[in-house]
## 1
Amino acid sequence: MLDNPENIYKPSAEFIQNAHVGPDKYKEMYTVSVEDPETFWGEHGKRLDWIEPYTKVKNTCFDFGKVSIKWFEDGVLNVAANCVDRHLATRGDQTAIIFEPDDPNAEAQHITYKELHEKVCRMANVLLSQGVMRGDRVVIYLPMIPEAAYAMLACARIGAVHSIVFAGFSPDALANRINDCGAKLVITADTAPRGGRVTALKSNTDAALLHCSDKVRCLVVKHTGDQTTWIDGRDVDVKALMETAAPDCPPRPMGAEDPLFILYTSGSTGKPKGVVHTSGGYLVYAAMTQEYTFDYHDGDVFWCSADVGWVTGHSYIVYGPLANGATTLMFEGVPTYPDAGRFWAVCEKHKVNQFYTAPTAIRALMGQGPEWVEKYDLSSLKLLGTVGEPINPEAWNWYNELVGKGKLPIVDTWWQTETGGHMITPIPGAVPAKPGSATLPFFGVKPVILDAEKGTEIEGNPAEGVLAIADSWPGQMRTVWGDHERFEATYFQQYKGYYFSGDGCRRDEDGYFWITGRVDDVINVSGHRMGTAEVESALVAHADVAEAAVVGFPHDIKGQGIYCYVTLMNGIEPTDELKKDLEKWVRTEIGPIAKPDHIQWAPGLPKTRSGKIMRRILRKIAENDYGALGDTSTLADPSVVDDLIENRMNK
Ligand code: 6R9
């Protein structure tokens, strides 16, 4: 049904004519990229400025026990110089960053490459003056303000490794990340307005730092000017220091494989892991995908509405666009403030050419009615994109018809924190779209469908199984911070010889890939990736909770919601008040994005005789799908299931 020709959307002749890559060129480039990666990437690596050119291109091994990934390994470069300095001669006065504040009446800022250079240098000098050295880690806990980009690039300039913690995370989550990566310093802001509400970032940071070494210093961006506590000797006013810092700071030559950043992401087990990306390969890949996937042309205004706290913001607000000398838009607010027209008002105001957002945002806006889109002149738009989760046909159609007026290519980009950049995505001038499919691989990417049990490749089409990648690409993560064994165990152990994505996937008759969602215990709530284990450990940390099991369930707007089964300690009464208390508890332990949608009291959980919780059953109950519970005979006590169903029905 979904493969019928009427559901295939081809780019317009005009689009194809202006596109970097048309249909024939895609096939040609793709073939070279996978058959001869050395030549292909050797050539495309030259898009960056290298202080010492590389002579080796690819040196990678996917064998379990020996996994090692190196690209351009003997090359020397500086990422910040590539994103800023090298554009000064040709486009110093061009806008690098457009900053659109939360408050629609506040003035937008246009930061030129020259200004960006000065800010980054000043910030880099501030970091140096605080004792930050090459290889030191700096945690960034900032809202979507230009200082976040300055801070990232300032770290890159002096060879420090940044780790951004999303500003929606709690003090506990922040403390865990500061401690895990051993950060010397955290950069935060006083408070952060978002959607008219204010988050107290500095006081969250104060709370986090109570659990960290007292050597960790705190740089504060006075963004709103709101009053905060101040600890002399530990807290530093960044803006004040930037004013007196020197406006120039030489970029430090770095090895291609020196770490650029760590970004924590959720897995199916244990604590979030620090995904490590390095300098050369990551930047080549982020820049290349930004140009080709979005068909970015010089002078275009590019807007990725993600947050810099996620990988999408790293690659497509900051590194990719700036490496290409683009104008990138940074938006502090939310899609629904002051009203549901904000995205489109911003597109009109700044004449945005490519717009990239998440299906969950589209679904939230769909419900508000077409008038919010129709009010605005969207004629500057040339292309639309989505990321973060599979897009459902209704949302795709709405995006296509209302925003794209039926004329714009839509690129549905499948990728992950671990992959650094797009992996499966249409090249818009070459690959027709099918709503809901991420279509075909990006250059250099070899996706395969594996039989989940046997681990063998399923050849031919159609095929269905789990999605793995057969060979390395430059943007691939290199390790888990401080735990290479965990890196291998997570991605290379289950299916030997492949990078395992954790996603299920089918491939249709035309070879198009359709991501079917995670096959592990990771859930995707409004495009935010979360391990059910994290929510469970937050719940069991509460004194009244004996045991908890958390699963995802389908949610109209968020994609997936959080469903918690909670067993209370003996003698504790299950009350509505306690439910609210637990919701609040999880919010405080992890952050607002992890707030449970449903808590169901569970006198017992379905367990195998060996004590394993059978989540498959819990998922079905959460989905209200009791007909398909499957085999329950291995349960230690099958009657638990009946209790759970009965409770669910009585809800
Ligand atoms: C970039 C980003 C990764 C997980 C991934 C998959 C889901 C992302 C998708 C998609 C279907 C798409 N995902 N893009 N599923 N279609 N276009 O989102 O990174 O936060 O690490 O999440 O998101 O399940 O495995 P991250």
## 2
Amino acid sequence: VEQTYIMIKPDGVQRGLVGEIISRFERKGFKLTGLKLFQCPKELAEEHYKDLQSKPFFPKLIDYITSGPVVCMGWEGVGVVASARKLIGATNPLNAEPGTIRGDLAVQTGRNVVHGSDSPDNGKREIALWFKEGELCAWAAVQEPWLME
Ligand code: GTP
Ligand code: MG
């Protein structure tokens, strides 16, 4: 089954949005496979966002992601990568639809409260990057037959 890496960024933690954001993924019907509060070291932030290294905003992005604790999550489900990106909304919160996390809860690209993997391959890569072995749980959710026929 598909996996995605979702991260509540430091602004989401500081603004008290952790419960609200986790709740949206839970209510949709996805399964939580990993969860921790974590102060991200600079090297990990740089590795995570290495595709954006050449962008002018890269140093600011690294400062932002390392500016306070983040909430790291693994979520599992059919189509979870694309669906989570829809729940999160557009990168620039001013362009994000109402009803999405960024559309409802954020204003600026540089403070867009949450990250979501952009492909199933990156979902795997990012979960392996942010979690150690033993930090993830494989478990059977009793609601599954009520979510999928
Ligand atoms: P993530 O889920 O965090 O990866 O966001 P995304 O996939 O919607 O956007 P992308 O991967 O292109 O950029 C990663 C992050 O870099 C964004 O979520 C923003 O936090 C930040 N970022 C992207 N573009 C800009 C920009 O033009 N200015 C600033 N300040 N930050 C940006
Ligand atoms: Mg991205």
